[in-house]
Amino acid sequence: MTNINEFIAGWKSHRNVLHDMLAEVTTEQLSFKPWEKGMTVAELVLHITGAMEMFAKTVQHGVYTPGSKQTFANAEELRAGVAAATEQTEAILRSLTPEQLAQSIDFFGNPVPGFALLQNAKDHEIHHKGQLFTYLRLAGIEKLPFFVSRG
Questions:
Q1: Per the domain annotation, does 147 fall within a domain?
Q2: Average model confidence (pLDDT) for the chain?
Q3: DSSP reduced 3-state for 108
Q4: Which domain holds residue 15?
Q5: Which of 50, 52, 75, 91 is deepest in the core (most CB within 10 A)?
Q6: What is the mean pLDDT of residues 79-100?
Q7: Number of domains the chain is built from
Q8: What is d(CA 88, CA 147) in angstroms, rounded to the nearest whole number?
């Protein structure tokens, strides 16, 4: 698949669920982590959003480009940051040209076509979103959305 609009639609069907997952998260639950060396809820959320931005920027620039660092003081700020990061990443994705999607990018010693890198990014996001479902259940949140959004 090399159609960026189809890719964005598929990615957003998962990213929109991330927004829904955070709806009932409290500031206190953001520091929950299921084991000592694991990420907290907040760290996992920021990893999800930051990684997708990094992958999109890397395809945009043709070389590894780190994502932005987000900070927040409470759950409401985190939700606002996730919304802003989603908009920013979508804008980057929409700006990508067919040439950028086809270019080979050296990603930590592996040459990867831009579009394949984006597919890996979406899979990465889905993987961590699955982890977040488990984190939130363990943190006491009972009402969670379906894993993918159809609208």
A1: no
A2: 93
A3: coil
A4: 4-138
A5: 52
A6: 97
A7: 1
A8: 23
Q: How confident is the model over 97-117, as a mean pLDDT? A: 95
Closest alpha carbon to 133 in 21, 12, 3? 21
Question: Distance (Å, rounded) from C-alpha 150 to C-alpha 14?
Answer: 9
Residue listed under structure tokens 């050296």: 106
Contacts (Cβ under 8 Å, ≥6 apart) of 88: 53, 68
**Domain assignment of residue 150, yes or no:** no
CA nearest neighbour of 123 among 44, 11, 6, 25:
11
Whether residue 128 is contained in a domain is answered as yes
Q: C-alpha dihedral over 34, 35, 36, 40, to 10 degrees? A: -30
Q: How far is CA 78 from the centre of its chain?
A: 13
DSSP classification of residue 3: -
Q: What is the pTM of this model?
A: 0.92
Residue 28 domain-assigned?
Answer: yes
CATH number of the CATH domain containing 31: 1.20.120.450
Q: In sequence order, which residues have a C-beta less than 8 Å from that of residue 82 and are 6 or more positions away?
A: 18, 19, 22, 45, 49
